[in-house]
Amino acid sequence: MSTEVPVKTDLHWIQALRGIAALMVLFFHMHLHWDLVPTLSWTSTITRWGFSGVDIFFTLSGFVVYRSARRSIPVQGLWPFARKRLLRIYLGYWPVLLLIALTTVFVYQAPLPGLKKMVFSSLLLYPNIWDNWLPPAWSLTMEIYFYLWTALIALLPQRHQIKAIACVMVLLAAWGIGWLIADRQGVFNGQQPLRYVFTGLGIEFLAGALLARAYDREVWFFRTSRITLPLCLLLMVAGLGIGSLSPYFDRVEVMRVASFGVMGVSALVLALTLERTRLTPPTWLVLVGDASYSLYLLHTFLLDASGRVRMDLGISSPPALLLFMVALPVVIILLSLWWFRWVERPIMKAAL
Q1: Which of 215, 218, 299, 332 is least surrounded by CB atoms within 10 angstroms?
Q2: Burial of 293 (0-12, 13-18, 19+ CB in 10 A)
Q3: Mean pLDDT for the stretch of residues 172-176
Q4: Is 66 left (phi over 0), alpha (psi -120 to 50) or beta?
Q5: Where do the H-state alpha helices sit in the chain?
Q6: Contact 262, 238 (CB under 8 A)
Q7: What is the pLDDT averaged over residues 116-122?
Q8: Contacts of 321 (CB under 8 A, 6+ apart)
């Protein structure tokens, strides 16, 4: 008899965590704008670490995708799973890329990037943030790569899947740590061999997969909220604290996993523990979580557009600039909710 409980699909705290992760990334990119206002510039002490919302996204994705793969692949085969996951990525991404292209040509009257960059960006073939037309798209490239790992693992007999996940995590950690010891300066300069093939960020994704299995088996620590919740909060603070010691904790993947990755995994455990309680997340945060993909893809484009609008309107006086900057994240969130409601969700429903 299986020891697993029925899969719970209405994970509201997971959606809330998506919303938090998206807001973290938004405010990370906001701090360059808020630095223009002395009243708001102090917030960069906090928002400068918002990029770690991506680490939360990777662990969340590992949880959700592996949970889906181990249910669907043994029954339906590999292609329906791959088709669904790829459509979710590309059909949410391409409309935003089209919006950027149309705005670039007809509003900004600026040239498009070179053909290679447009093609590679459109197909999500660049794992580096600086190569992509839409900078946040680098993480989508990594997501697709991780989906391949998940699919291959899900093809194994279930009794071997956890062992396979653990083995890959050990391999990735050993590769990253080994090169850090063997050629520290080269790694710090971004010259680690097979950096993206054996990316340490995969450890975060696979940790989410392990938590999916643990959650469905109702492992004890999800039921002991009085112990688990404060421990998770402590680990989140510790992960962020360690990550703040050096910029290399952001730039070197295996170091990032040991700091911001710990924060991301702990945040996921915290959310899953809250799912087992009677507490419910704020409705507005769940709504932001539902629209988190739209917010993640749109926010850098909207921030760039806001700078152009501010210059065109001549907003420079301290009171007007303060009001503009305070309203800016609210407007971006509302526009992302609108985009999700009227663009992303209808496309997804029609395709899936």
Answers
A1: 218
A2: buried
A3: 98
A4: alpha
A5: 12-34, 38-41, 44-47, 53-76, 78-102, 115-122, 138-154, 158-182, 184-188, 201-216, 225-243, 248-251, 253-256, 262-275, 283-290, 292-313, 318-339, 345-351
A6: yes
A7: 96
A8: 36, 37, 310, 315
Q: What is the mean pLDDT of residues 153-160?
A: 94
pTM of the model: 0.95
Rounded to whole angstroms, how far apart are CA atoms 181 and 207?
A: 24
Tokens of 321: 């600039």
* Residue 352: predicted pLDDT: 79
Residue 1: the pLDDT is 35
Q: Assign 1 to helix, strand or coil.
A: coil
Closest by alpha carbon to 343, among 18, 20, 93? 93
Does 8 have pLDDT greater than 80?
Answer: no
Which tokens is 136 given?
Answer: 């946040």
| Structure tokens, 17 | 């965590």
What is the rounded distance in angstroms from the CA atom of residue 129 to the CA atom of residue 136? Answer: 7
**Minimal CA–CA distance to 5: which of 67, 49, 84?**
67
C-alpha span between 71 and 65 (Å, rounded): 10
Distance CA 61, CA 208 (A): 7
Among 175, 176, 161, 172, which residue's Cα sits nearest to residue 209?
A: 161
CA dihedral 75, 77, 79, 81 (to 10 degrees): 40
